[in-house]
């Protein structure tokens, strides 16, 4: 993976509207999107059809979708420049997913770690759907419909992008050159932000609230969560030598403060965990303040947001339908 920022490429990524977004989503994914959107053609999707692969509440889903859309804009996605749309508004996604599933090897599909993890979390075997199993094929369709070169995601999505590449290569070999082969783009420092309650697990919105910091958490909640975050037994602030819990907190501090590692190590050399945590909470609160203000403004009035999503849908449909048409033709469907 190259460390250089890509330019003049097509970028595609998406987030599921399955709960509040947290600082892991921001640092692992959205922050990279913002950095990429100016020099590239970027497309950002709210992947609602992925969110319905596990049990969910249809009454709250519409709000969750608008929450994610508002998060994109408040975080800095420019809807005038980048395309922003809702996955279920472009039917080419599910249609291409079916076509790709005809060449998806069952063996590879059975090795998807996210499927295994998500199925384990479900209460009964009956709740594990076929859609949860075939989810990576839908993700491949999302990416391949847009001639995507680069997919900025967190580390946990690497395996899905590997599968997307395999499906594209197979399809091209079998039916003729149709799809661009995409590359993952994974941030070096915040690819995997860990849980505040257990530093061996990634920060996840499906775990207990104290384990993550939501982008919409109030300052007092942020202070409380950081104060109760687990630390390691010895007090050393070192990016190389600290235990996993402190390393994680240091990584979060680095990402939000923009400071260099050495500078941070020096800053806290003689400080206690308590002092470090106060500085960390202050930094997160200050960084999120402008985001939260913008988010609340956008979310209080949906008309503008719906207009943006409608425009995004039309632009996305134009690109996706052309690719789908070509794929069907190459497969011999008339
Ligand atoms: P999800 O919330 O699973 O839909 O993830 C949305 C995006 O955020 C994906 O690109 C994930 O890889 C990224 N992401 C989720 N959790 C984390 C985390 N703890 N650390 C870094 N990136 C994450
Ligand atoms: N599977 C991704 C996640 O859980 C979300 C996603 C769906 C996605 N389709 C995508 C990410 C296409 C990047 C590109 O985070």
TrEMBL record:
Chain ranges for the short sequence motif 'HIGH' region as given in the UniProt record: 17-25
Motif annotated as 'KMSKS' region, chain positions: 202-206
Any Pfam family: tRNA-synt_1b
Keywords: Aminoacyl-tRNA synthetase, ATP-binding, Cytoplasm, Ligase, Nucleotide-binding, Protein biosynthesis
Cross-referenced InterPro entries: aa-tRNA-synth_I_CS (IPR001412), aa-tRNA-synth_Ic (IPR002305), Rossmann-like_a/b/a_fold (IPR014729), Trp-tRNA-ligase (IPR002306), Trp-tRNA-ligase_bac-type (IPR024109), Trp-tRNA_synthetase (IPR050203)
Localization of this protein: Cytoplasm
Transmembrane segment boundaries: none
Predominant cellular place of this UniProt entry's protein: cytoplasm
PROSITE patterns linked to this entry: AA_TRNA_LIGASE_I
Binding site for ATP: 16-18, 24-25, 154-156, 193, 202-206
GO process terms (BP): tryptophanyl-tRNA aminoacylation
Residues where L-tryptophan binds: 142
Reaction equation(s) it catalyzes: tRNA(Trp) + L-tryptophan + ATP = L-tryptophyl-tRNA(Trp) + AMP + diphosphate + H(+)
Functional description taken from the UniProt entry: Catalyzes the attachment of tryptophan to tRNA(Trp).
Family of this protein: Belongs to the class-I aminoacyl-tRNA synthetase family.
Assembly and binders: Homodimer.
Full protein name: Tryptophan--tRNA ligase
Record organism: Candidatus Andersenbacteria bacterium RIFCSPHIGHO2_12_FULL_45_11b
């Amino acid at each position: 993976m190259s460390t250089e920022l890509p330019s003049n490429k097509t970028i595609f990524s998406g987030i599921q509207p399955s709960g509040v977004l947290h600082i892991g989503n921001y640092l692992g994914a959205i922050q990279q999107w913002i950095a990429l959107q100016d020099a590239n053609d970027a497309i950002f999707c709210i992947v609602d059809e992925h969110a319905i692969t596990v049990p969910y509440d249809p009454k709250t889903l519409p709000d969750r979708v608008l929450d994610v859309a508002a998060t994109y804009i408040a975080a800095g996605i420019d809807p005038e420049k980048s395309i922003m749309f809702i996955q279920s508004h472009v039917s080419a996604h599910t249609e291409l997913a079916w076509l790709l599933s005809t060449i998806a090897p069952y063996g590879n599909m059975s090795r998807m770690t996210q499927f295994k993890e998500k199925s384990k979390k479900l209460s009964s075997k009956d709740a594990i759907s076929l859609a949860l199993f075939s989810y990576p094929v839908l993700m491949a369709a999302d990416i391949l419909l847009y001639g995507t070169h680069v997919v900025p995601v967190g580390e946990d999505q690497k395996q899905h992008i590997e599968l997307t590449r395999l499906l594209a290569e197979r399809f091209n070999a079998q039916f003729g050159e149709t799809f661009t082969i995409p590359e993952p783009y994974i941030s070096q420092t915040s690819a995997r932000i860990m849980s505040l309650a257990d530093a061996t697990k990634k920060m996840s919105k499906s775990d207990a609230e104290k384990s993550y910091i939501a982008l919409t958490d109030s300052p007092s909640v942020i202070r409380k969560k950081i104060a109760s975050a687990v630390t390691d037994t010895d007090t050393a602030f070192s990016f190389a030598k600290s235990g996993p819990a402190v390393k994680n907190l240091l990584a979060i501090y680095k990402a939000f403060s923009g400071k260099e590692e050495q500078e941070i190590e020096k800053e806290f050399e003689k400080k206690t965990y308590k002092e470090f945590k106060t500085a960390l909470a202050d930094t997160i609160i200050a960084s999120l303040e402008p985001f939260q203000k913008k988010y609340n403004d956008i979310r209080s009035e949906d008309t503008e947001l719906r207009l943006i999503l409608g425009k995004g849908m039309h632009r996305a449909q134009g690109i996706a339908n052309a690719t789908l048409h070509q794929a069907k033709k190459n497969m011999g469907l008339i």
